[in-house]
Amino acid sequence: MCDVPCVACAGYVTYSKNxxxxxxxxxxxxxxxxxxxxxxxxxxxxxxxxxxRSLHGTIITPxxxxxxxxxxxxxxxxxxxxxxxxxxxxxxxxQQWQQQFVAAANLQARATSLLLCPAAF
Length: 121
Fold this sequence. Notes:
Distance between the termini: 20 Å
Number of helices: 1
Oligomer: single chain
Mean pLDDT: 82
Helix content: 10-25%
Radius of gyration: 13 Å
Shape: globular
Number of strands: 7
């Protein structure tokens, strides 16, 4: 066990902020405890992330914004500009990411359990 939240999984995905209608970008996602961090590439993980979102208490659902898409809804009542849409390469990877996001959303804020990673590092 770690003294700080451990990296649960990481991998490249395509993502969009807000309603999935904004420009889609490619990034390297690191899921660490309840936090999701997006970096430009895997070489940038020691730098400040492009964006970070706490998944604690978020709603994670499949999305029709695009094929193989997961919606990370920050506000349980309505969509917000802080929502994220994450695209996976295929249906299996999408399901694996969704399971990891749901697990992270349900973790206690200071949990240190490691989760299994669906994507290659």
